[in-house]
Structure formats: C-alpha cells, structure tokens
Amino acid sequence: MTTIGLIRHGSTLWNKEGRIQGHTDNPLDEEGLEQAAALAERLSTEEWDYIYSSDLLRARQTAEVIAARLGLSIAGLVPGIREMDGGLLEGTTEQELIERWGKDWRTLEIGLEKNESGRLRGSRAIEEIAQRHPGRHVLVVSHGAILRSTLSGLVPELDLSVFLKNTSLTRLVYTGKTWTCELYNCAKHIEN
User: Fold this and answer.
1) Exposure string (b/e) for 63-96, b if CB count within 10 Å is 16 or more?
2) Among candidates 14, 23, 139, 120, which has minimal Cα distance to 70?
3) Would residue 129 count as lying in a domain?
4) Coiled coil located at which positions (predicted)?
5) Among the options 17, 23, 30, 83, which is catalytic?
6) 83 catalytic, yes or no?
7) What is the dihedral of CA 77, 78, 84, 86, to 10 degrees?
8) Residue 57 is part of a domain; what is its CATH number?
C-alpha cells in the first residue's frame, strides 16, 4: 500500500481578502508560514519518505518548511497539481465579480478551468507519483480547488462539500488498484 498525504498550502494575503488566486503566484503570509511550521511539527512524528509540490510559490514555500523539518529534499515540482486556472476571475473577490459581471457571472465564459479538466490533470499527477513510489509514504503540497477536483476523481464517493483548510492534511491509501481516504481535511495542528 502506498500512502499519499495531500496538503493544501498555508494562507496568503489573498486568502484573507477572499481573492481568487488560480495561477497567480502569491507568497505565503506570516500566518501561512506559521501554519506550515505547525504542520511540519505534526508530520515529524510520522513516517514520510518523499515530498512533492505544485510549482506555484505558495505551495512550494509550504513544502520547503515541511521538507526542512522532516530532513527531506523536495522530490519534484509537479505542474499537474498546480491550482485550477482562474481565468479572468484571478485577483477578484466575490463582490468585485458581481459588480463586474452581475450575479450570474458563473454562467459566463471567463476562462475558468473546468472541474473535469482539473479532475483528470490532478488524478493523473497523483497516480503517477503513487506508481513512482509503491509502498512508500509521500506528501504532496498543492491547492484547494485542484485537490478537491483530484479527490473527486480518485475517491468519487468522498463527500467534498467542506472546503479544504489551509495546511489541512488529507491522507489517501492506494492498493495498486483502488484509492481510499483515511483522513479528510484535518487541520488539528492549527486548531487550538
């Protein structure tokens, strides 16, 4: 069995402002770095062999903090787990979207990546990582929307109605044929 720990990056200023980030390459804010350190401390009591990251800065910074604490090198930057493309929505808040395009903005063609595209892209990337490291314990630092789309492809029966928290851990087990979710959206390291 292969264990994959999926991690959403730490917080950014745009998270706090409610701005859609997508492919915009924002850094972690101070709280995001603290969240990453708290998660790294938690993970230091577990067995992890490899860590991968999205190629976007906020995920890479989160992975670097974790890797340093675990004594690992980042095994690779994976474009397949990059956040969903936000198109013309990137940098905007919900209120700004409504002001710009009206309450029905979701029905417009504004360059937003489709969930199906993210599901296929993310699932393929995680499956490739699992096949590269059979029987090992692998961390993957990514982003909220792409992780939810990915999970819908790997574990279709999983209830994804709760959004992933910053630095939450979702643990999957792969038998070589099937995926199961042992832990979803756990952020106990920052909930106190």
Assistant:
1) bbbbbebbebebbebbebbbbbbbebbbebeeee
2) 139
3) yes
4) none
5) 83
6) yes
7) 40
8) 3.40.50.1240
Active site residue 127: no
What DSSP character marks residue 5?
E
Report the candidate in 141, 154, 159 with the shortest Cα–Cα distance to residue 180.
154
Assigned domain for 93 exists: yes
143 falls within a domain: yes
Q: Mapping DSSP to helix (H, G, I), strand (E, B) and coil, where does residue 167 land?
A: coil
Q: Fill in the DSSP letter of residue 176.
A: S
CA gap 93, 113 in Å, rounded = 17
The answer to whether position 192 is within a domain reads no
Token code pair at residue 48: 């992890």
pTM of the model: 0.96
Q: 62 is in which domain, residue-wise?
A: 2-186
Could you read off the pLDDT tens digit of each residue along the chain, which spans 192 residues? 999 999 999 999 999 999 999 999 999 999 999 999 999 999 999 999 999 999 999 999 999 999 999 999 999 999 999 999 999 999 999 999 999 999 998 888 999 999 999 999 999 999 999 999 999 999 999 999 999 999 999 999 999 999 999 999 999 999 999 999 999 999 999 986
What count of other Cβ atoms lies within 10 Å of the Cβ of residue 153?
A: 19
Residue 128's SS3 state is: helix
